From TrEMBL, chains A, B:
<feature type="domain" description="Aldehyde dehydrogenase">
    <location>
        <begin position="13"/>
        <end position="274"/>
    </location>
</feature>
<dbReference type="InterPro" id="IPR016162">
    <property type="entry name" value="Ald_DH_N"/>
</dbReference>
<dbReference type="GO" id="GO:0005737">
    <property type="term" value="C:cytoplasm"/>
</dbReference>
<protein>
    <recommendedName>
        <fullName>Gamma-glutamyl phosphate reductase</fullName>
        <ecNumber>1.2.1.41</ecNumber>
    </recommendedName>
</protein>
<dbReference type="InterPro" id="IPR012134">
    <property type="entry name" value="Glu-5-SA_DH"/>
</dbReference>
<dbReference type="GO" id="GO:0055129">
    <property type="term" value="P:L-proline biosynthetic process"/>
</dbReference>
<dbReference type="GO" id="GO:0004350">
    <property type="term" value="F:glutamate-5-semialdehyde dehydrogenase activity"/>
</dbReference>
<keyword id="KW-0521">NADP</keyword>
<dbReference type="InterPro" id="IPR016163">
    <property type="entry name" value="Ald_DH_C"/>
</dbReference>
<keyword id="KW-0963">Cytoplasm</keyword>
<comment type="pathway">
    <text>Amino-acid biosynthesis; L-proline biosynthesis; L-glutamate 5-semialdehyde from L-glutamate: step 2/2.</text>
</comment>
<dbReference type="InterPro" id="IPR016161">
    <property type="entry name" value="Ald_DH/histidinol_DH"/>
</dbReference>
<dbReference type="InterPro" id="IPR015590">
    <property type="entry name" value="Aldehyde_DH_dom"/>
</dbReference>
<keyword id="KW-0028">Amino-acid biosynthesis</keyword>
<dbReference type="InterPro" id="IPR000965">
    <property type="entry name" value="GPR_dom"/>
</dbReference>
<dbReference type="GO" id="GO:0050661">
    <property type="term" value="F:NADP binding"/>
</dbReference>
<keyword id="KW-0641">Proline biosynthesis</keyword>
Length: 421, 421
């Protein structure tokens, strides 16, 4: 069943060939047919609840036997509510605006040629993820909605659950006439299959890793296929001299503590030397249960603040820990961010509009905010409907990647017999 | 002077560090200041004509001594007219619309957050090219106009000319206060410097090769930095059953023969079995001096047509040679293109609008045309003002890459104290 006997390079080549054929069909499907297929998939997931839960029980039992941590088991675990939420998510994506066919711009040339740039799917997308089985569905349907074929490679500990979810997805979309190869699940737990995906240039158009830093780092290091990802979310919140004290506290506490494990959580608090109420911000974070690691000046704010090491400025804690540094005005904040940011999300708190605009213009990150919590760094919060990930690279798509980020464009040129002089 | 004693990895690291610092300055320069610097650079090139011609004479003499082909020497050679054309090109780019700061879209969220996506420069761009010295100027100024720092690595045979052109460029832009490191020329002819550029991930944001297939293939094979390029331009012109006979002849002859050495030249002519006048098209091409290599059916059109081998369908001739195949309707043409295209440019000749739209939708290439010559595949012809190259990949930019393709975007979020529930 696990098909671990198959040569991974041949396996991925075969899957990619079938994905390419499916992508050619998907690229020309109408929005209505894709939406109808997704609605059928949602229904099929609800119908298959018992099979999915049964498969998940086996995965969870094996995970417990293998000594996986409670946190990992929680990521793996499904129940009725979680399956319903997965199906709800499919219906939400079914209703999103389809980017395929959208005209980006048009241009009538003096010689009468009519040019237009039209959005088309990327083609074949590889998704490499870990133990959360919902990614099987979430990633698969975002690819399908945007007209792409998907090759999914989930974590081995979730293999039975992923297969059950995948079977339901395929049952739904094939019922509406879409190709079964639109969404394929790599049928082996052999890690060499991941390696084969990463070097499948020309066969897989883009790889999107979903998971922890170790996974993302491996993908970025080994991939010859382009990768959309973020390795770190070392986000900064800067409290300017002209910050409103109440906003400073509310934003700092929310940016750090709302959920400490998300990539948009603030990891370093920067405070202007000239800000009048730094102890109140630090105290609010400490009182909220956050450990603070500060530079020499920050340590004097509160005896509970310990000394930061050089490493702290480059650490994504994903925990209730925050580094705190004093900086000399917005220029100092920008210099600290330029030196330590992972180019994910930065925020300034200030009532000075000119300072805010300076920060927005100069901070070189995918997302730059003014008077808002860095925890808003999310495709759903940005109104994109759903996101497949957040990218901190500079090519193709930056920040939250949703349906549009899974497309490219082509140039259509409509003439009446023009030849070039 | 050639600095071939320097470790190429350290050299590129040093250049990239200086480029990154320059790019941070350039990213915030106004359009007016960038345009003014480019106008000064154009003037400096005109002023330095004698030095440039002197350097070029030395390069050309060395090239002759080294036995370079007349075609290569012509690519290398400058004269007064060519220098004036280079300076004219700088002035044209100075006047183009600056993409930096353009708002792609805006979105007011229900919680009051104002989102906007704003174009920003990519950062540091590496250009690797061969013997045409004009690329030193063309590529450098397109990068500068779009707010990027450039690292240029030209061919060793043009080194003296490139240095003279580069010195004039830098004299012009520094006169207007822009950083001297905005456009850097790799000072060594050591080929290892190219290798060092290709693996400078995180230091160089994108590599654009300009030159022959050997260069592009090496760059694509070795690069870990993302590459924007096209390896081949295996472009197709398809004559549909419903083609207008006069347009069919005019477009086929122009698409193939206007200039055979450009990447948008048609390399394969596909003719519908049901087209009534195939011999007239073939005859016109033959009479225009084009050798035709046909499948069995095509060979019967004219005794001058020789037999095509399997390789012909995958060959970019860049010469007055054309492959000719009969296909069964637009579906057959699309199948041939799917099997053999390099995803550059395809064109259909037909008076049937529905067939045309089918072809435009289904042909998976960067540029797809109806009743127009594939030789229009060019940034200038597309109204982009200037192009740095044509990309056949699917990520980031596709087709002619001009100023917009040298930018990315960031998300700006303007709030009034919002925190995430």
């Amino acid at each position: 069943m696990a098909r671990d006997d198959i040569d991974p390079t041949l396996l991925i080549k075969d899957m990619a060939t079938r994905a390419r054929a499916a992508s050619a069909v998907l690229a020309r499907e109408t929005s209505a047919r894709k939406a109808s297929a997704l609605m059928a998939a949602a229904k099929a997931i609800r119908t298959a609840e018992a099979e999915i839960l049964n498969a998940n029980e086996q995965d969870v039992a094996a995970a417990r036997a293998n000594g996986l941590s409670p946190a990992m088991i929680d990521r793996l675990l499904l129940d009725s509510g979680r399956i319903a939420a997965i199906a709800d998510g499919v219906e939400t994506v079914a209703g999103l605006r389809d980017p395929v066919g959208m005209v980006i711009d048009e241009n009538l040339r003096p010689n009468g040629l009519k040019l237009s740039r039209v959005r088309v799917p990327l083609g074949v997308i590889g998704i490499i993820y870990e133990s959360r089985p919902n990614v099987t569905v979430d990633a698969g349907i975002l690819c399908l909605k945007s007209g792409n074929a998907a090759i999914l490679r989930g974590g081995s500990e979730a293999m039975r659950t992923n297969r059950a979810l995948h079977a339901a997805l395929i049952a739904g979309i094939t019922e509406k006439g879409l190709p079964a190869d639109s969404i394929q699940l790599v049928p082996t737990t052999d890690r060499a299959a991941v390696g084969a995906m990463l070097v499948a240039q020309g066969m897989i158009d883009i790889i999107i890793p979903r998971g922890g830093k170790t996974l993302v780092a491996r993908v970025q290091d080994e991939a010859r296929v382009p990768v959309l990802a973020h390795l770190d979310g070392i986000c900064h919140t800067y409290i300017d001299a002209a910050a409103d004290p109440a906003k400073a506290i509310a934003i700092a506490v929310n940016a750090k503590m709302r959920r400490t494990g998300v990539c948009g959580a603030t990891e370093t608090l920067l405070i202007d030397q000239a800000y009048a109420h730094p102890a109140a911000v630090a105290g609010a974070l400490l009182d909220a249960g956050c450990a603070l690691r500060g530079d020499a000046q920050a340590q004097r704010l509160d005896p509970r603040i310990t000394a930061a090491s050089d490493e702290d400025w480059d650490t994504e804690y994903l925990d209730n820990i925050c580094a705190v540094a004093f900086v000399d005005s917005v220029a100092g904040a920008l210099a600290h961010i330029a030196a330590h940011s992972s180019h994910h999300t930065e925020s300034i708190v200030t009532e000075n509009a000119a300072t805010a605009e300076q920060f927005l213009a100069a901070a070189d990150s995918a997302i730059v905010m003014h008077n808002a919590s860095t925890q808003f760094a999310d495709g759903g919060e940005f109104g994109l409907g759903a996101e497949i990930g957040i990218a901190t690279g500079r090519l193709h798509a930056r920040g939250p990647v949703a349906l549009e980020g899974l497309t490219t464009y082509k140039w259509l040129v409509r003439g009446t017999g023009q030849v070039r002089p």
